[in-house]
Amino acid sequence: MKNYVFVLLFLILFLGFSQHKEKAETQHSIKKQVNIILDNWHKAAAEANFENYFNLMDSVSVFIGTDASENWNKKEFKAYSKPYFDKGKAWSFKALERNIYTNTDLNFVWFDELLDTQMGTCRGSGVLVKKDNTWKIKHYVLSIAIPNADISKVIEAKKKNDAAFLEKFKN
User: Fold this and answer.
1) Helix (H, G, I), strand (E, B), or coil: what is residue 56?
2) Tell me, what's the pLDDT at 170?
3) What is the CATH number of the domain that holds 115?
4) I need a labelling partner for 76 at 20 to 30 A (CA). Which of 4, 21, 63, 133 fits?
């Protein structure tokens, strides 16, 4: 009887460990896939490859840019971006570091990244979803990183434009 209990406990521990290890390996694989997707997305913009860039985004997705007015669905963002891609010069973002997180069902990830861009240091953050066994960018937010020592100058520089922009929301 003691041997039976010991074997049963061993099997339970072994199966639990195996499942944990398998999930960790799957999370690692997902993070590698997402890194490749995001790197390819940034590369497509740098190479002004319109189709590759927008094919990595979900059909229902959002891009939020650095200007307060830039909150676009995919169709709007494509229209805004098309002239830049057509000129052969969109934008160039290179990830300096990236953090990727997964949900427990492993079908949803969120991330943040530090970027080297033509605007200087920026941050990107977003969400990818897995649909039909393919990862798609669902939401992306681009922010310009402003050193704390410079924030007062930036606030002063944008005060006039902010006042005009915020006037739309006062009604």
Assistant:
1) coil
2) 87
3) 3.10.450.50
4) 133
CA–CA separation, 136 vs 37, rounded Å?
8
Q: 26-80: per-residue pLDDT in tens?
A: 889 999 999 999 999 999 999 999 999 999 999 999 999 999 999 999 999 999 9
The Cα 53–Cα 115 span in angstroms is: 17
How far apart are the C-alpha atoms of 152 and 155, rounded to whole Å?
Answer: 5
Q: Say what the pLDDT of residue 8 is.
A: 56
Q: 80 and 68 in contact (C-beta within 8 Å)?
A: no
89: pLDDT confidence band, cut at 50, 70 and 90?
A: confident
- Torsion angle, alpha carbons of 40, 45, 49, 51, to 10: 70
- Domains: count for the chain: 1
Residues 22-25: contacts with CB within 8 Å, 24+ apart? 23/106
- 95's CB contacts (< 8 A; 6+ apart) are 38, 39, 42, 113, 114, 115, 124
pTM: 0.84
* β-pairing verdict for 120-131 and 93-102: unpaired
Residue labelled with tokens 């979900």: 58
